[in-house]
Specification:
The chain has 6 helices and no strands. The chain is mostly helical. The termini are far apart.
């Protein structure tokens, strides 16, 4: 019984560490883009700020409310986010599949934010 409790505590600590890492990474990414870092922890507002960062219209927030469409939109936003930081689609795939590795790489690496171009916004 004690082994199960110890294992549960260990898993919970790993989970909390990943959550803290992701919040710190998103905070830094938002800051690099000239947005307030605290915006990453406010539900729905963080999506609005992310849409601004990648040059998509704010009404796309509604698309996040539609099942299955939200998955496609999240993938598009991750690809655009990688592009505005000068990364390629392969990096975006990493952000989708292994976010706890690629978001910190984007946040704490040397990637610089550039405003989205007109072709990126379309």
């Amino acid at each position: 019984m004690q082994a199960l409790a110890a294992a549960s505590i260990f898993v919970m600590l790993i989970y909390l560490a990943i959550i803290v890492l992701m919040i710190a990474s998103l905070w830094k990414i938002f800051t690099k883009a000239g947005k307030p870092g605290w915006a990453c922890i406010v539900p729905i507002y963080n999506i609005i700020v992310m849409l601004e960062m990648v040059g998509k219209p704010t009404w796309w927030v509604i698309l996040y409310l539609i099942p299955f469409v939200n998955i496609v939109v999240a993938i598009i936003i991750n690809i655009q986010l990688a592009k505005v930081f000068g990364k390629d689609t392969g990096f975006a795939i990493g952000m989708i599949l292994l976010p706890f590795i690629f978001f910190p790489m984007l946040a704490f690496g040397n990637a610089q934010y550039t405003k989205p171009s007109a072709e990126l916004s379309a």
